[in-house]
Every structure is written in C-alpha cells, then in structure tokens.
Amino acid sequence: MSQVILFDLDGTLTESGEGIIKSVEYALEKLGVTENDPENLKRYVGPPLKESFMKFSGLNEEQAEQGIGYYRERYTKVGMFENRLYPQIPELLEVLKINDKILGVASSKPEIFVNQILEHFGIAQYFQVIVGSELDGRRSKKEEVIEEALLRLHMQTERDKVLMVGDKEQDVNGARSCGLQCIGVAYGYGTREELSQAGAVYIADTVEDLGILASPNDEETTEHVESVRKNSKNRWERKGVSRRKKEEKQNRTKADEKAEHQWGEDAIKESDSGSNRPIHPVMQIWRVIYPILIHLGISMAVSIAFSMFFIWKVISGTDISNNYDVVEKINSSTLYQLILTSVLSGVITFFLYRKDQQRRKAGFLGQGEDFVWSPPVIWFSVIILAIAGSQMLNDLILVFRLNEIFPYYSQMTDDTMTGQPVWLLFLTVGLLAPAAEELIFRGLVFRRMKDFMNPWAAIILSALLFGIYHGNMIQFLYASLMGILLAVIYHRTGTLWTSILAHVVANLWSLFGNSWWSSMWAKIPFGFILGFVIELLLCVIPVYWIFADRRKSNRKRN
User: Fold this and answer.
1) What is the pTM of this model?
2) Among 8, 10, 167, 451, which one carries the catalytic annotation?
C-alpha cells in the first residue's frame, strides 16, 4: 500500500450528516425553500456547499452565497458538533502511524472547520497536513484540495506513493484528476455503485477493512484484507487502546464547547477580513526579515541611549573627565546594554511568536501548528548534544587557529567580559541573550521560512542569517553551525523550548566549562584528540534519540 494516505473527513473519518443536514435545512428555510424529502438532503454531505445549493436546490450563485452564510450561522454554533467518529477510527490511525504511514486530511469543508473538528475528537495529531477549502470559496474543488495537500507534503512528483480515501464519487474523481488512486468507503454517504463506477481501486465496507492500508508494500492485494484486519486487531490490543479512553477524549464539557464555538466565530471573522489569503512572496521575505530588524533597531537605540547618558555625564562635569573615559564606560556597559536589548526584543518577539502559533492553529498560516513531544530523555539528549556540539566547535576554532587569523574577536570578547561579575555573565550571555535570539531566529525567522519552503532549506538559510547577524568571521562560522543544530532540534522536537535550552546550555558551557575541559585534556598525551573523540561519541546517542528514531517521535506527539 502507499506510504502517504490522504483521508476525506465527512463520511470517511466522521459521521457528520446530522449537523450538515440540519444546518442545510436551516439555511433553506431562511431562503424560503422547502425540501420535503429528507433523503435529498443527504446529497449535501461531502460536495462543496455552494455547488450543492445550486445543483440540488436550484439556487442561483447569489442565493447560494447567501445560503452559505445562513448555513454557517447554525453550523459554527451547533452543527459542527452534531457529529461523531466512526467506530475504530482512532485505532486505525494509530496502526497506520505505527507502520510509518504519512497521513493527511483533504476535505472540501473549510480548513478552519476541519481543524476544529479533528481537535475536538482528539485525532489532529495523527495528520501531518490538514487541508480544506477557504471560507471565501477558494480551493473548494476536491482536486484543488488534493493538489494543495501534495504541495504541503512536497509530493507533487511522487504521486504514485500517495493514496486517497473517501466516500463519494467526488473523492474518487478528484484523486484521479490528480493522478492518484482512491479507495472508497461504502460505510459513508456514497454508495458502492457510485464508488465503483467512479473508479475506486478498492471499496471498504467497514473501518476494519481499511486495515489493508497498513500493508508495508505494494504486493499486498485485496485478497489479504482479512489477514491485515486480524493483524490490525492484534496491534490495537497490544497498544491497549481502550474504548473508554476514546470516549473520554470525545466528552467535552458545555463550557469547552461554548469556548470552541466562540473561537470558531472569531476565526471566521478573521478569515473574512482577508487574513487567511495567500501571502505574497515579497511579504513572506519581509515577515522573515523584520524580526531581525526589530532586534537590531532596539540594540542601536539602547546603545545610543547609553552613549548619550555618558556624554551627558561629561557635559554636566561629573566623574568622567575626557572622551577616552566615555568610550571605556560604553564598552564596560556592554552587558547591561545586552540585558535591556534582550528583554525588550524578547517581549516583542514573544508576542509575535504567540500570534503566529495561534494563526497556525486556526489554519490561517503555514502548514499547521507545532506539536510538542518532550519526554525526559529528549531534554537530557538536548543538553548533552548542546555541550558536546559547543565544545567541538570551540575545538575546531583552536585547530584552525581562527583566533590568530581574526584577532579582533578575542580582543572584543576580552574587553566585554573580563572583570565582569559571574552573575552578570550568567544572566546576560547565559540566559537572556540566547532566549531572545531563539525567539527571533528559530521561533520567527526559521519557523516563518518553514511555512513556505522546504524545512531543510529553511534550516540552512536561517542559520546563515544567524551567523551573518553576529558580525565577525569567527562568530559567523560558529553561529551558523550552531544555528543549524538549534533549528534542527526545534524542527525535530516541535517545541521552541528545546532549542532555547540547547542555546542556554551551549552558552553557559562556553563561558564556564570550555576552559576547564580543555585544560583537563591538555595534561594528557594526545589529550586533545582523545577529548575530541569523546565529544563526538557523546553526540551519537542524542542524535539517535532526537533525529533517527522517527517512530518514537510520532508516538509521543500530543
């Protein structure tokens, strides 16, 4: 079976007919249209709503648009949650994830609603991409939704590895238009006959029949459905996925549902104002650059403020007696300037980062919200990797004699840090500066790049910007390589806290551990080489836990 599987939502993952039908009835009543045959209303489940109003109720385009507005009046408040998962859907998704399948949702329903519904039922974490239509009617055709899903998955040139699963002929026809095969589900709102005539390669009568999707290769055929189904049941039992736990996820309090309904209405207002429209390439570049400019502007403003203060001291005839003392005072206050710069820029960029996260969760920005999986072994691995990686980079600077080639860096470091209190170094270089830099360069610059480009390209480009921003050759090399490591940690763990931790640990080690480690190995013959080998070995296990074991990461996402 294919490695990448796209699911329709209504009639495939959820039995949503009740809420859709009642909301359609509500809209038609508002328009003065009477539908006497309840069976006819079932045709509205699945296809794009505007198309259905025009086709099944004979409305013109303007009336259909008005009908959509009436439909959403009820659907966002009540109808969305007159809905339930088909039995064993969470278990099926769990089995597919265990078998390393890449899952996505491709629905003609507005993407904001798709995200809300999947979150409501506690299954959003299984899907790498969640794609739907836009609230303004764009991307409503099934083939358009599927193409967007392929784009976000970077699978446009590997369509033979992607399979669609849906319950209506629109799903099958849309998949075929995009060069994909489609499995039909007869337990949904379509019929076996319509799915067969549309060209479904296989028709599942129950969710259990979709166990065939867990097959690890293309040699599996429909003759093996029973054995796959049996294996799937065994996996479900081994995983201990209980019916009670699933029901606990589905049972929301009335207060929770009220909050969700209000959130949905607010999201619609935001989308209707145009905030979910595609971002122009020039604006994408600006969104990446301006957080750096914020930090640079604040840094310059703080530096000017300190300079003006010391110049004022000269003019007022206090302690300072000449221009040399002014320069010396400015240099000696660098760490205090760094505190103020880090706090101000950190607060501003934190709110920008949180706003981005909320917009991703609402489906208005990028490729979905970040996930967070951080068991203790991951945090420990990040700490070890940060220490070993930082020490290796410092050793390479010594090996290639970069301090001798570029002496300005060492002189600048000595002028800034020599004689400063330990608490001040710890607070500025060890805590505040790395936290602010992570918010800017990983939380905003890298994450915003990842919204519209390949993640690995975003990792490299954001790391180069991080290196360039440091302003000298040694720090460019060190910060660029460290920036790659920090961006990869954020990308693989899905939480900015791990990259902040790694940056803090690396800075603290450079301040307080580097000289101790180097002097220890300097007393041993071939100690430098032995120490470097140990540093390299210390990276192996953290790299395995953070990067290599993808299956573990998938299981631990919330």
Assistant:
1) 0.54
2) 8
